[in-house]
Amino acid sequence: MKTLKDFNFKNKKALIRVDFNVPLNDKFEVTDATRIQAAKSSIIAILEQEGSCILMSHLGRPKGFQDEFSLNHIVAKASEILGVNVKFVSDCIGDKAEEAVANLESGEILLLENLRFYEEEKNGDAAFAEKLSKHGDVYVNDAFGTAHRAHASTTIIAQFFQENKCFGNLLAREIESIDKVLNNSERPVLAILGGAKVSSKITVIENILDKVDHLIIGGGMSFTFIKAQGGKIGNSICEDDKMELALEILKRAKAKNVQVHIPVDVIAADDFSNDANTQIIDINTIPDGWEGVDAGPKSREIFDTVVNQCKTILWNGPLGVFEMESFAGGTISLGNSIDTATQNGAFSLVGGGDSVAAVKQFGFAEKVSYVSTGGGAMLEMLEGKTLPGIDAILK
Ligand code: AMP
To answer: Which of 8, 33, 206, 312 is the least crowded, having the fewest Cβ atoms under 10 Å away?
Structure first.
């Protein structure tokens, strides 16, 4: 696996695919700069070697050239975070871009305009990728968030660099972290899958059954498992058409010696609102008119014990409706358990889908070993898929 360490960037132009697809408010100010921060390590490493950086990214879903999606909006924030004045050019290919690249000196950073102003980017157009490739001596992919897409700048471009391509520090860390959970893990290994739906996590569960010793199934999707086993779940969310599959998963887990832990009690609410009346109740006996919205105290205790006996922990998805303060307790409790386990030497990885939002909201991001930056990309890796953006560098 080639990384920045395999190159000397002195007087070289590094063409880096970053993920600067950051949220903007109505004044076009960056409201969450995590992704810019995440790209800093690679950029600074290259500048320190007296190389220069040409950054390319997409922003949002533009239809052609649309000023509201211009990466110009993030130049000030990027300059502030990187501590270097970031230059900007209002196109990513063509004369203007080529001139800006030619004028770039060692130690400087140039940000190209939004790649998705050209539909060729998403179409994975080889001619477009080739034009982009002319900007750099070395291609660095540091955008995990788009590594599962075979777009021009994330995948197709790599073929124009033969040997001169590598993973950036962020992408390398993502790959190593997932590898540490799926392939080179210290046992016992635990996967915690929560969130709303079984259907969105089926392939993950199926792939992961071969890798783990324990599986916690929490959140909304646990009710499909409970109902399938004959429990009474009241008005809790459930995917009836997935009940058979749920039973099949339990059967397969048993055959593979994976211990499955499903909540035994819940906080049930009589309304899907923060101010609803609540009761703590056995998960099998939820009355009609009530729905399970969070893990109950006994479940939290059981999960705490499981978490703290494991050496490798993967967490994807909340244990309850964490967006409502009244129903965030189970997710917070689990976060605390993982914090303790991590302090005691376990490796903990959080990511996939929206899990990162929950982790950040409750301040767990600094307490776990690694928080993945790519929702969809991470889920696809957990599903056992080879990501085209990663494959293109390895080829
Ligand atoms: P996911 O994107 O699949 O990880 O699901 C996250 C969503 O699951 C969050 O918005 C939670 O509010 C929701 N969720 C978790 N537990 C429950 C539950 N018991 N009932 C309804 N929604 C839930």
So the answer is: 8
The closest residue, in CA terms, to atom 5 on ligand 1 is 195
Exposed e or buried b for every residue in 369-379, given b needs 16+ CB within 10 A? bbbbbbbebbb
CATH top-level class of 185-382: alpha beta
- pTM for this predicted structure: 0.90
pLDDT tens per residue across span 283-305: 999 999 999 999 999 999 999 99
Q: What gap in Å lies between CA 351 and CA 204, rounded to an integer? A: 12
For residues 222-234, average pLDDT = 98
Cα–Cα dist 31/22, whole Å: 8
Task: Sketch the domain layout of the chain as residue ranges.
Answer: 4-174, 185-382
d(CA 384, CA 205): 10
Distance in angstroms between the alpha carbons of the first and the last residue of the chain:
10
Q: Of the residues 236, 265, 321, which should be mutated to test ligand 1's pocket, given the most ligand atoms within 8 Å of the CB?
A: 321
Centre of ligand 1 to C-alpha 355, Å, is: 10
User: pLDDT tens digit string along 308-320?
Assistant: 999 999 999 999 9
pLDDT at site 360: 84
The rounded distance, in Å, linking the Cα atoms of 215 and 228 is: 18
* Rounded distance from Cα 195 to ligand 1 centre (Å): 4
Pairwise CA distance, residues 118 & 319, whole Å: 41
The structure tokens listed for 6 are 């395999």
Helix (H) or strand (E) holding 13: strand 13-17
DSSP letter for each residue of 298-351: HHHHHHHHHHHT-SEEEEES-SS-TTSGGG-HHHHHHHHHHHHHHHTT-EEEE-
Q: Contact, 325 vs 291, CB < 8 A?
A: no
Q: Has 220 been annotated as catalytic?
A: no
- What is the three-class DSSP state of 268? strand
* 93 CB within 6 A, ligand 1: no
CATH number of 4-174: 3.40.50.1260
Q: How far apart are CA 333 and CA 192, in angstroms?
A: 13
* Secondary structure element (H or E) that encloses residue 278, with its range: strand 278-282
CB 186 within 8 A of CB 212: no
**Predicted local confidence at residue 354, as pLDDT:** 67
